[in-house]
């Protein structure tokens, strides 16, 4: 909670600074006007999310509502996704202009020859965590011995779970893993068939808490010193080469939108209302967004505007994911990330 408070304060300052700069430039939150009275020309840009909209995505909807994307010349069209791999491939095939996807999936697709690159990771502390009910008696990693945890084979939290166990001094055999899909994991935890699940704390956790009426405890990978990048913006090689100004505009606008959403969390979540029938309830969305704000920086980027990436964090991500077999070995950050569009 202390780290989350510090993060919110830093992002609020960044959001205020962004609004001051926008005011100095004569821009208006009304996308159809400027200080000179002329309409701001915008380009329609499609962005495919990693999944159906949930709290993490509030900045995109808030940024559209507040005219932040329009001020950067972007008419942002937000599309639901069907998993980060599908989003990464849709960007590579030119089906959408940009994607919002989990970095391990992006890197794996790049290794497979998909012509994409990350142009900025925003969720820089992994949300991967073992999630259990607070009344389960599991309060620290050693309590997992002999317990059954639901996992989803092939996803990043599950594939890196052995590294987490090693980091906390446990063996793989100390924990029984039950393989289920995303919905099945939640159902199994709610029904008591498993003692907990592995997944993203900022997504499933608030959902489980709302459906059960019980508090959820998170055993976070990052608390064990295991961290790797999560969700961020993805562009195709063609777009980066042929329209770098558009890429830069989207990154800058997204950074401002994240800062503004952190400064106004209730308003940011309210901007999502009615946008997708599969969205969780408003209280779940609020919890998801508030959990997300704790993931927007690392020690290397603390105090920077959202979306600022550090080469050391990229290298750490490569080291963790290659050790777990998710990505190729021996690659350098520029294989996966184009640093030309760092937010200002």
Short description, anyone?
This protein is an alpha/beta fold. It is built from 15 helices and 10 strands. It is globular.
What keywords describe this structure?
single chain, 344 residues, alpha/beta, D-Maltodextrin-Binding Protein, domain 2, 2 domains, five-stranded mixed sheet, 42% helix, 15% strand, globular, disordered N terminus
Description:
The protein has 344 residues and is of the alpha/beta class. The chain folds into 2 domains: 2-125 and 229-341, D-Maltodextrin-Binding Protein, domain 2 (3-Layer(aba) Sandwich), CATH 3.40.190; 128-224, 3-Layer(aba) Sandwich (D-Maltodextrin-Binding Protein, domain 2), CATH 3.40.190.10. It contains 15 helices and 10 strands. The chain has helices at residues 2-24, 58-65, 68-71, 84-92, 103-111, 156-159, 161-167, 182-191, 204-212, 237-242, 244-263, 265-270, 282-292, 311-323, 333-336; strands spanning 43-48, 74-79, 98-102, 116-121, 128-133, 148-151, 176-179, 196-200, 216-220, 231-236. Residues 1-37 have low confidence and may be disordered.
CATH architecture of the largest domain: 3-Layer(aba) Sandwich
Strand order within the widest beta sheet: 2-1-3-10-4
Main sheet attributes: strand count, strand direction, barrel closure: 5 strands, mixed
Cα end-to-end separation: 28 Å
Query: How are helices and strands ordered from N to C?
Result: HEHHEHEHEEEHHEHEHEEHHHHHH
Overall pLDDT metric = 90
Contiguous runs where pLDDT drops below 50 for at least 5 residues: 1-37
> Globular, elongated, flat, extended or rod-shaped: what is the shape?
globular
CATH class bucket of the largest domain: Alpha Beta
- The fourth-level CATH homologous superfamily of the largest domain is Periplasmic binding protein-like II
Radius of gyration: 20 Å
Give the fraction of residues assigned to helices.
40-55%
- CATH topology label of the largest domain: D-Maltodextrin-Binding Protein, domain 2
Count of spatially separate domains? 2
Number of helices: 15
Q: Report the portion of residues in β strands.
A: 15-25%
Q: How many strands in all?
A: 10
SS-derived structural category = alpha/beta
């Amino acid at each position: 909670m202390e780290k989350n408070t510090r993060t919110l304060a830093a992002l609020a300052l960044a959001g205020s600074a962004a609004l001051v700069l926008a005011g100095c430039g004569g821009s208006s939150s009304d996308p159809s006007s400027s200080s000179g009275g002329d309409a701001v020309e915008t380009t329609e840009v499609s962005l495919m999310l990693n999944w159906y909209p949930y709290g993490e995505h509030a900045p995109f909807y808030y940024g559209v509502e507040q005219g932040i994307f329009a001020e950067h010349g972007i008419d942002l069209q937000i599309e639901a996704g069907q998993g980060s791999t599908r989003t990464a491939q849709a960007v590579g095939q030119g089906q959408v202009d940009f994607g919002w996807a989990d970095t391990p999936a992006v890197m794996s697709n790049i290794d497979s020859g998909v012509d994409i690159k990350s142009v900025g990771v925003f969720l820089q502390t992994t949300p991967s965590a073992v999630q259990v009910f607070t009344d389960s008696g599991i309060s620290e990693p050693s309590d997992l011995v002999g317990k059954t945890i639901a996992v989803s084979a092939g996803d990043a939290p599950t594939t890196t779970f052995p590294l987490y166990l090693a980091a906390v001094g446990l063996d793989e055999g100390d924990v029984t893993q039950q393989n289920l899909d995303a919905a099945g994991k939640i159902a199994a935890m709610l029904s008591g068939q498993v003692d907990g699940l592995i997944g993203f704390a900022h997504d499933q956790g608030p959902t489980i808490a709302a459906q059960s009426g019980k508090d959820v405890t998170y055993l976070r990978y990052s608390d064990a010193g295991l961290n790797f990048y999560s969700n961020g913006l993805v562009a195709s090689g063609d777009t980066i080469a042929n329209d770098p100004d558009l890429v830069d505009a989207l990154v800058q606008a997204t950074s401002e939108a994240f800062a503004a959403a952190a400064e106004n969390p209730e308003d940011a979540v309210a901007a999502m209302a009615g946008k997708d029938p599969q969205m969780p309830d408003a209280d779940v969305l609020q919890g998801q967004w508030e959990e997300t704000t704790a993931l927007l920086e690392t020690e290397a980027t603390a105090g920077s505007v959202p979306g600022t990436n550090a080469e050391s964090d990229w290298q750490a991500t490569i080291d963790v994911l290659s050790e777990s077999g998710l990505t190729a070995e021996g690659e350098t950050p520029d294989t996966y990330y184009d640093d030309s569009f760092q937010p200002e």
